[in-house]
Amino acid sequence: MSAVEMKRGMRGFAQKTVLVLGLVTGFAATVAQGETLADALAGAYQNSGLIDQNRAVLRAADEDVATAASALKPVLEYSAAITNRFGNQRALLGSTDINTTEADASLIASLLLYDGGAARLNTEASKEIVLATRQQLVSIEQQVLINAVSVYMSVYALRDLVDLRENSLRLLQEELRAAQDRFEVGEVTRTDVAQAEASVALAQSELATAQGDLQQSIEQYVNVVGRQPGPLAPPPNLPQFTSNVESARAAALQNHPDILSAQHRVAAAELNILRAEATLNPTVSAFGSIGLNEDLGSSNYSNIGSIGVELRGPIYQGGALSSGIRRAIASRDQELGSLYEARKQVSQDVGSAYASLAARRASLVASEERIRAAGIAFRGVREEASLGARTTLDVLEAEQDLLDAETARLSDEANLYVAAYAVLQASGRLTAQDLNLGVQIYDPAAYYNLAKDAPTARSEQGRQLDRVLRSLQKN
After folding, report:
1. In this structure, are residues 288 and 308 in contact, taking their beta carbons and an 8 Å threshold?
2. 176 with 202: CB under 8 angstroms?
3. 310, 407, 412: which is closest to 362 by C-alpha?
4. What is the pLDDT of residues 57-114, one digit of tens each?
């Protein structure tokens, strides 16, 4: 093979490389429609164990309201006992054997009439904790959904990257075989072969790394979404939100679930201070009982009933009540501090999210420009090599620069989508309802409305609660 023919072969190889890279770049636009980003988000929402866990936490908080409300309702109890008394009783005239068996049964009722408002305040504080826990659930939902966006874009980008690496490796292997053939006929030196071998080894290493990264992302996808990823459709248009960071910050400070949760906890802490102060007041309770006592060894029996009103109040309890008030005040101050920190964190997160989005957009634009420039440089090096002004190594390096530019664009595109959805998360708008995912939205009030009045197990409301719990356990 002559030098001119070798240059022509190199030029053909370079043209093939550009063509294949262009086809791989367009792969994302032509891939068959498969699972969409919305599908992945819906799967994460429906299959998240973390969301289920925090829904259970919310149901427990709902039951705290029921427990607090029960203090204002009548209490009815029963007791029954059979007692055998044996032994002897000594007196001045002698001793008497004792061997009697008695049966006792009684019904006892009580009702709190007045306690300075402590029970009512406890109920109201429990309701505020329920509202805080609902917002905490929204915050968890946002975290689950942003994780779904991240793993979807990671798998999507890494699949394209693996295709890029595989095509690059195949072309470099062809170049290596051609270099070895030319070396055997003495048209190139061992140096040219070694350069091609080094390029193949590097491509193999980069392909193995990309395949490993893809497999790790697939495992994360299964963990977050709940199933193996099939063919992934190209991501949709970026979500819509205001471009004014200060407007977004102001809205987030009003509506972000972390802030709303902290506000409700402050309200609960304020009510707990009033409840602690109410324990200094007297309590008034009504009570009544009826009992039956029968001696099973004789015909003796008695029926006894009672009814009354009890007034009870503290005089001295070693300072425990005053300590309880001070503790409630300290807890309120703690929650105020948490609210202050939540506001600062949300404000920072909004600003950081918008800054990251701007940086990702600029990086993607730069990647596109880098691809354009690398393509021009590659074509220039290829032409210079055909004239003998460039070596095989120069062509391989220019090809690697173009491949690196394509790789960077894939990464920048994925990062841009994650940054855009992170803006929604920082603004408190990354929820299944806001995204209109087309899934059954969990209603946090449904269980609360059944449980808040502390229904008994035999009531219709109690039976509805049992059916709800059985359904949750099956899921």
Report:
1. yes
2. no
3. 412
4. 999 999 999 999 999 999 999 999 999 888 887 776 777 777 888 899 999 999 999 9
